[in-house]
């Protein structure tokens, strides 16, 4: 069952934690929610100790009253299972359910998500409270969606306790069958790590040396599966008790996050939901935001998804938190909606007075309603109401696709690559930024999709950034796509190892040598701040390789300085209608942008619309209508060519239109010819 957030309206609201406030506050909350146009809250996320203050003693009445008030006010509820934070009495009774860190230290009480997903005690307790919540409140008329736990993996991505080690051994036995196969796959002959039985396997706890890469990679997979197992256990209960209520859990898709591999989770949610927080120190944080939203849509296979959390202004957990500028919250929200979110929700409704997030922004600030944040919240509610027709439409399939691969991220981290400056996420993010700046629409999909599904069909440009771990079938699919006319760009350190982190021998990148018509015999990482030049004027940092080309492969750029002078740095192989470009070095951003622009132009891909640089453009369409989102990141007025009615201002627009600095337009585009619009405009304006 795939369920959209709310037919006919975009979702707007926040995490709501009434347990932090006197009971009477609910009246004011509900009145203000209505004033702001809130139509959805996530309730009960951290309410376990309030719902069960003593072992087996439930206090449900207050929760039922809150649900009733919300239902009366027509505010729907994402009902949470409160398992993210078990009550202190439970942790005291069963300290063994707490996770252990890589040094074997048990995490003390306090915090949240400090439980181990392999703990039988925790699992039984979670089953009990989830069943209680589902049976007591699951059929309440306010409930629209289950919100399972909270950001599973955020604080408990990896546990190193003995229970996990035992389950890991069983997981390995299922995956590899016998210990001989495991020894072979992991290459345990190195340093004499040969295993006599699965019982010899230990989790990769902190040691004098880093763990074997294959062990570390499989442990990441196992931990992701263990958390998924916990999620699925909760879901089984919810589906049994309330089969009609769709289920989700809030993902954390962000450049700096790799807690779990959502590519293996997404088929277990009825609706993909994501939490995203901008990075204060990043002056171009809107680009990372857009990338997160595009990745989330890729995980949702292009279907609408829900922004479950973001912030109205500053968070409280970065080194130097940043208060959002006027208009930034609206732009941030619409950046998600433009990219397929059918709503925008926040952490949280009312700013907490106590607790470790007391200085985190909220929809209702400490200072109350006479504030800029509140006014902007009310304005956002109004804008989202006007954007109701966008709900359920889909972002148009992009001609450019960028692969994102969490297993490659894990494998590279596990590998001790030859340079500390090689960080997986930087590479797809750099490519994305170059395309974003050119206003080119990009779909970002898990690399596993590209190996198995039709993700590459009809794409004109395919970017394969540092896809270190070669998914089986990927090279063949890329080759087929190129023969059909796609222009494929592969960057350094792609296809170097197989699924078990073992180097594919015979010259790098082993999996893609044939595809590229090029191979390297040696890596030559650069020192910090060291750069070398290419003969096309590009500057290279971090990474170079000693590349050889096969007959027929063109050298696009060669080294003009350093030990590789005269040798190929960027190569291109023509394949029937398409090409495959290998960027064997890390290009500085300007050079990467030039290269990708050249490929995009060669492929005939155009920007989403004609507009000044610095205006983000995305189109959603469906049911015969299309909506062009234009979000200005300029500090001065800009121009965009649009035809239709701006749903934000209500104005009819035809042709080159001014968009104010930092402003937004969502144009309900005229389906037929612009001629006709001109007629309409004349008529309406007269
Ligand atoms: C999220 C979390 C929320 C809140 C928020 C603060 O990661 O789900 O509960 O902690 O961060 O930014």
TrEMBL record:
Residues of the Beta-galactosidase trimerisation domain: 398-605
Pfam annotation, one family: Glyco_hydro_42
Catalytic activity: Hydrolysis of terminal non-reducing beta-D-galactose residues in beta-D-galactosides
E.C. number: 3.2.1.23
Top-level enzyme category: hydrolase
Keyword vocabulary terms for this entry: Glycosidase, Hydrolase
Domain Glycoside hydrolase family 42 N-terminal as annotated: residue spans: 15-386
InterPro entries: Beta_galactosidase_Trimer, Class_I_gatase-like, GH, Glyco_hydro_42, Glyco_hydro_42_N, Glyco_hydro_b
Similarity comment text for this entry: Belongs to the glycosyl hydrolase 42 family.
Protein's recorded name: Beta-galactosidase
